[in-house]
Amino acid sequence: MATYKRAWFINFTGIGNGIVIAPLLKCFEKSYSTTKYFHSENKILSDKWFIEKAELRNLAGLSPIAWRRFNREDWDKIVDFVSRNQIDLIVNLRNEGPKYDIGYYEFKKFLKQDHDVAFWDLDFDVIENREKQENLTCDLLKMFEQQGVDISHYESQWLYIHGGEKSGIGFGMAASQKNKRWSTHKWIELAQKLLKNYDQKIILFHGLSQEETDKAIEVQKSIGSSRCEMINHQELSRIAIMLGKLKCFISNDTGLLHICSATGTPTIGLYTSTDHNIWAPYNKTNFLYCTNIFMEKCPARKIHCGNCFHYYDPCPAITQYGDNINPEKVFELVKKLLV
What we know:
Blueprint: E1 6-10, H1 15-31, E2 36-40, H2 48-54, E3 59-63, H3 75-84, E4 87-92, H4 97-100, H5 102-112, E5 118-120, H6 124-127, H7 136-146, E6 169-172, H8 184-197, E7 202-205, H9 210-223, E8 228-231, H10 236-244, E9 248-252, H11 255-263, E10 267-271, H12 276-279, E11 287-291, E12 301-302, E13 307-308, H13 316-321, H14 327-337
Parallel strand pairs: 1-2, 1-4, 2-3, 4-5, 6-7, 6-9, 7-8, 9-10, 10-11
Antiparallel strand pairs: 12-13
Helix pairs in contact: 1-7, 1-11, 8-9, 8-14, 10-11
């Protein structure tokens, strides 16, 4: 097995990506114990609480978010970063591939001209041509294993919260991309069904934007503050502990969903604009999901990426058709998890 002085892991920047990669990095450390490494900037990996929970020891630092795209104007800075830190292994964790991650593959050819650097990449000959897409974490585990990493001790539910009685049903309303947000009136309808059938409080975890805060306020006003609590913005570690103490959590496909699933709390994912086959948590214990069939009507889908080109602007399929995830179906899933 090859040995490396320094590695650089290139990843998406989401909280969920940080949750997914942390236990994989632990596996990497056990197999490449002398290799220090850098990772793309990420809120999870910059938080001491999560680092200690993941038992990571060899993380040397974080690289700027913009570098993950390998825009040509950043190449000189990236080359300097690689040279200065004696990086001899670059691991690309992004599932864009040669079709979409063009800057990375061009940079890879450029760097190889005068730098002795190894590259680990996902197998896109397989990923781009298979009939049904698989979970991204599964693909990453295969890549690590092929490179000599012992993945036998990989644990996706690495944030398990011990002790105490669980209470409350959480709503993960936060989503930085509007396409991922379930409709406010559906959250309200679901809350009404839950409060009618369970003696539990509804706990709202809303996003950072004023629009998301206003939507959460609308939900709270509709069902009453006596049985509905809004969680104001707090440190992610405190949010993780709260999520770990819930009876159940229903969430848009965002970082909070992955944090909650990693705590072991029963979780339901609402996939309005992304493919659950790719982006759902790897461990399906206590995890169920609903998916929006109208995403198949999107004219700009990135099939093997599990989303579409309209990631930051309105998806035409959602604009025209909305989503077919109805509160009654979600309620039935809650009943299964709370048996």
